[in-house]
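Researcher: Last one for today. Full complex below.
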Amino acid sequence: MIRIHVLGAGGATPLPGHSPAAYHVDLDGDPILMDPGPGALVRLVGAGLAPRGVDDVALVLLTHLHPDHCLDLVALLFAAHSPLPVRRDPLVVWGPPGLLAWLEQLRGVWGRWLEPRGRELQVRELAPGETCVLPGGGSLQPFAVDHPQDRLARQCFGYVFRDTAGRTAVFSGDTGPCAALTEAARGADLLLVECSTTDELATPGHLAVGQVRALLAEARPRQAVLTHQYPPAAALDLAAELGAPGGTHVIQARDGTVCSVPADQEEPRP
Ligand SMILES: [Zn+2]
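Model: Here's the assembly. Have a good evening.
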């Protein structure tokens, strides 16, 4: 079972209902806090997904190091430094190459304030194509996508999540059209995909509406959930704009949208 709770359906510029990136993934019972952008921690707790606060965060997964996807890792580490949390098992952070250097620079600013108290911080840079198996038996696999890089983020990832029954959910991360995303999404049970902009405002390194339509028509995932909407895209009825390319059931995410594999109301594929 894979359940994804969209905590932030927007991009860097928040709107009501479209906060910056943040996702909670339940992969066969293993919780993952993915891309904790600004305000993610507050929304995680507010959604009832972390009743014990930071003690309920065991694994943080990052697609890339732009602030709208990772800023609340700072808030999380600082909260874990306070004497209140009691959890003692490691706090694990996985992300793309550049993650270690970024955290080192943050320590240059805040020093020990970012050291979890009583928990080991285990940070690892993943490699595209490697398979990481979680305690519950589900796995995740990063793939490299096409998004502007800088001296910190030397690679940007999307992820394939696979549950123990072999069902897949794919997250695009931030990306322009790219073959790796199309292949990862091909036939997926669920595709959580960025739809940043309208066609008129198409931006390199992001997907505009028409590019998402082409992706779905080619890859034909069973269901697609559109996220990372900047205000012009968020103002549209994206499901109506897109129709059902390739037979895919399309959902326009807002903060609080929950999607799952198997779908809560699975329909036979046309
Ligand atoms: Zn972004």
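The chain has one domain: 2-261. The domain at 2-261 is CATH 3.60.15.10 (Metallo-beta-lactamase; Chain A).
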